[in-house]
What we know:
The chain has helices at residues 7-17, 51-60, 64-68, 78-90, 104-112, 122-131, 148-164, 179-191, 207-214, 237-246, 255-269, 275-286, 305-312, and strands at residues 26-28, 36-41, 71-74, 94-99, 116-120, 140-141, 170-174, 196-202, 250-253, 293-298. By secondary structure, it is an alpha/beta fold.
Amino acid sequence: MGMPITLAEVEEARRNIAPVALRTPLVRLQAEAAAEVYLKLESLQPIGSFKIRGATNVMARTPREKLERGVLTASAGNMAQGVAFCARRLGVPATIIAPDTAPATKIRAVERMGGRVIQVPFAEWWRTFETRAYPGVDATFIHAFDDRDVMAGNGTIALELLEDLRDVDAVVIPWGGGGLSCGIAAVMRELAPRVGIYAAEVETAAPLAASLAAGEPRTVEYRPSFVDGIGSKTVFANMFEHARKLLDGSLVVTLEEAGQAMKLAAERNRVIVEGAAACAVAAAVSGRAGGGKVVAIVSGGNIDLEKFGELVR
């Protein structure tokens, strides 16, 4: 297993992403809860999610001759948009391998940015993360989470967070592949080691919680739901080792709790929170990350508005 990302890598990433990614606001959730909850609004990024940070940084650090071949990634939607956005900006082609469960809203967004989408069965999609390639596509692969440059881009969130709320007590982060959680946690462990760092998962797909309990990567049952930005059957061994050293645990929420968190953020703060981000908000509101000042990373807001309306009703 490689070492966690360093502060020097994250500081360089901050310079790399400055022309593209926003420095997002940190706002207090206007609701009574078991903790004083704050929302880090990555949903306000140009593509509606934090993924623009990692995508921008990795492409900034990739030689132009490799980018000219085109770029390839595997994503259910948000990293796909990050890579497609950056590829269009740099004038290079982008191909996205997406699961057949990916929301049509996210697929359309990628296509609007000029990305070519290939939808495949979930198992085949997951294999792309392992092989870092796709048959018939000769392009530079950008891994959505198991990549130092991607994690360094994500770690810039922690720098901003600590500048805005130095006395934070805990941070709750949606766990998909682990690139967001481990990127943020690596910075927090260096600069604010006393802060609790928790992953957030949903009951229908929570491999990290099972793996941490077992002390090794485990496979769990996966059921698709409106929480489509996170959740899988298992945890990559490399990411598990990072998580075991950097995180204080994984907090698993129900679909009902995630839906209630979406409604709460919309009603009280007028913020659209997608299912993955809602898991972090739900865990923070419940008090499972402790009391005091708890930050929920609102990783994205990319959800079909009709589906969003159904859920908050």
